[in-house]
Amino acid sequence: MILQALTEYYNALLERGEISPPGWDNAVKVSFGLELAEDGTLVQVIPYQRTVKQGKKEKLLNNRLMRIPAHVKRSSGVAANFLCDTSSYLLGADAKGKPKRSMECFQDCQKLHQRLLTDVDTPASRAILAFFDRWQPEQAATHPLLSPIWKELTGGANLIFCFGMEPVTKDSAICQAWQRYYNAPAEDAETGQCLVTGEVGPIARLHPPIKGVRDASTMGASLVSFNAPAFESYGHTQGGNAPVSEYAAFAYTTALNALLADSQHCQIIGDTTVVCWAQHGEPAYQSMGMMGLFGAAPGIDDRDLSAALHKLAQGDPVSWENVTLAPEEHFYFLGLAPNAARLSVRFFLRDSFGSFMQNLEKHYQDTAIIRPAYDSWENIPLWQLLNETVNQNNHNKAASPQLAGDVLRAILSGTPYPATLLNGAELRIRAEREVTRGRAAIIKAYYLRLRNPHPDCPKEILQMELNETSTNVAYTLGRMFSVYEQIQQAANPNINTTIKDKYFNAASATPASVFPLLGNLAAKHQRVLGRDNKGAAVNLEKKLQKLSTVIGEAYPTRLNLQQQGSFQLGYYFENQARYQKKEEK
User: Fold this and answer.
1) What are φ and ψ of residue 160, in 5° steps?
2) Burial of 566 (0-12, 13-18, 19+ CB in 10 A)
3) pTM
């Protein structure tokens, strides 16, 4: 299903003229051009550079993205590329200290170019053939044009032949020779029915590498591969175990590499690299999908984004980036993680664009909660939710990769949040004795999404703000603890250690053992407060009496996990209500 969706996406981009045709790669990083004279003499080395925008700054890179003949996938053997390759193949020399192997690479590259260019009669093709005839690899390191930049040339950089100060890929006759060679089936090619397209044709033995997944091999990793007997069956080897045509293998890898190379529409969560695309290839869908999931891009108002999400969730088309987005458009989300030389699929989700937007809106509704005045986020971003499960004093502040993938899948599919998200937030509350907006939102959203509502955490307390009419005992105990803390702070404004620091965990787990002590402390603090601010003391006493009538004559001996969540929500809401009243005054 993944390969089919990516192949369809490739075909859509090909029709739009936004991607390279079979046999070509539009986005290969080339660092140097080898300018040749017609007699094959190396007359100049051209360095290529480009600037990319990273945030608000621009970074200078020592390469340029070029359209070149597709590279072969190498494992441990010698396999040359046409027109563009590393110094091992084009110059027969490198910094690896293996001159014999470098010579083998050069000779293989020479044979490939002689095979393809012998019948091509253009100045550029004659220059390349003459270069291979006269070049001496053993003298490469001392060549006056190469020795000053030898380290950069031999560090794995891609080099390309140039003629007339232009890459030889500008020569149409040379390009036609490559296309004929690429389209011709190999002599030992296995023919079969492609599992992706259903058509009969040459089967790809090895699939092109996929680059751009964080922490995966820099040389590229495989989504489909069979490189050990344990993965093979019925006598088939490598690609024969799951026959995919050479065209489909090229199409899906080219489409996926294009998605991964698009920094605006590719995001990282944990160890998962997330991409998305619409079936017909319109990039405006990607922009809306990524901003809906990860937040508005600079220059986009959050309210405009929320309004667009709401309309799409209701099934209405929306104009975005001068394109009308249709809710019924097929849309895909793919999450990839590194796994040695391969890629693991964290998730692959397919649905209508409107359904995804509906799930995103539901996620923001479930996590919506009253926020402190200093918090500028209208909706809590995904990365902030994940950060609520991590100790920010640790050197590694990243959330669990598995948790990140599970939460993302729950958001996009509209399913219950993973229990590990709630457990992570609860662990941080116990360790830090701090109920932040994000942690309260996690508790609220987790219990809202349960298929069977839990009686100890009912919907009456899973609101956006304080519910003063709730009779839930655990929720009310949390509110009472907040009032006790308020009384202490009012009586001792400069106190360093509050009852929250000493008793919060015990009060939320075993109220009967802690609340009588807190009541005695509050009575003493009330006497102090009554001398300084009698009105405040009376108001707080009235609030305590009202809360006490809900609790009854005896405090619960123990609160379970769900009741502790109710306690924490009551504490958070009561605190925010107190701060809001101060701001209003």
Assistant:
1) -140, 145
2) buried
3) 0.76
